[in-house]
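Morning run. Coffee first, then this:
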Amino acid sequence: MQSVNRAPDDLRIPADSWAGAAAQRQWFATFTLPQNEKSVTRQLDLRDVESFLPTYETIRVWKNRQRKKVTLPLFPTYLFVHISRAERGKVLGCPGVLQIVGSAREPIPVADAEVEFLRSGVCRRKVEPFRELVVGERVRIKSGMMQGLEGTLVRRSSSLRFVLTIQMINQHAAIEVDADDMEPALP
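And here it is:
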């Protein structure tokens, strides 16, 4: 008597192959229609695609002088997806997605360290968009959760700012960093 239908051994996927498939996943920047980042993130969630939309909070003053705290995308028209090659179609078929950033042949992955920095709680405290890249000294974070990240050092009022640049999408984010946590980057 047979109680369970089982696939023959040659049709079963070995457990270590699942780990290999997850290891092949990389972060990619995805270009979206303007002001559609949040809806694209919801659509990707419905398709079981891991995504990340970096945001920041700011105070907006409306015409009636009312102040309201709003959450906006840190990099307008961009979000990040953690996918393998096989999952690219799920992303590209999502309403609001224009393309995965890369060359004409294939998308270019974003470094895991850059995405993890943006996802960290440290980053969320004092992050804001930085539209103009100030020519300054290249620095590296030498300790803590952001260790190893390189950026440009700028000064804003009395505090030091570290500007992280994600080269492939030509976007920047500024965060306050203690001077003791930075060192000059080697050329």
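Residues 1-19 have pLDDT under 50 and may be disordered. Good start to the day.
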